[in-house]
Write a structure and sequence with these properties.
With 134 residues, the chain is mostly helical. It has one domain. The protein has five helices and no strands.
Length: 134
């Protein structure tokens, strides 16, 4: 049942403070998974993607703990830059790396969107109960 809620949060509109907090939890979970996958591939390929792994993990922590807009922007920029750099190399990028990058772009974009909303429009609409969460 929790996974169904996570899927809804990852693809739904954010209209309340608590929906924003749920989406932050889901996007940071996705960024942690991406960081773990990058760690595995970095260890298998000789450590070339270790910096990406560390940056994604630190960004996910800062987004979840501090609702950081800067960390969300860095995660999105890293997600966009990684496939561009990989494709510009002579060897190119594997299809699985492109899929990971697309997932990272989606998670980073959603994290940036929700942190901007959380510090802006939804900052003043915090309520005491969770009755307004669908």
């Amino acid at each position: 049942m929790q996974q169904d809620t996570d899927n809804k949060a990852f693809f739904s509109k954010v209209e309340t403070h608590f929906q924003a907090l749920d989406l932050i939890r889901v996007t940071t979970k996705a960024l942690y998974i991406i960081a773990a996958l990058q760690l595995v591939t970095a260890l298998l390929t000789g450590g070339t993607g270790l910096v990406d792994c560390v940056v994604n993990a630190v960004c996910a922590y800062c987004i979840r703990r501090f609702h950081s807009r800067i960390a969300a922007a860095v995660a999105l920029l890293l997600a966009v830059a990684t496939p561009i750099v990989a494709l510009s190399r002579q060897g190119g990028a594997s299809s699985i790396a492109i899929v990971f990058s697309l997932l990272a772009i989606w998670a980073g974009g959603r994290a940036l969107e929700v942190t901007l909303k959380l510090h802006g429009r939804l900052a003043l609409t915090q309520t005491k109960n969770r009755d307004d969460v669908a």
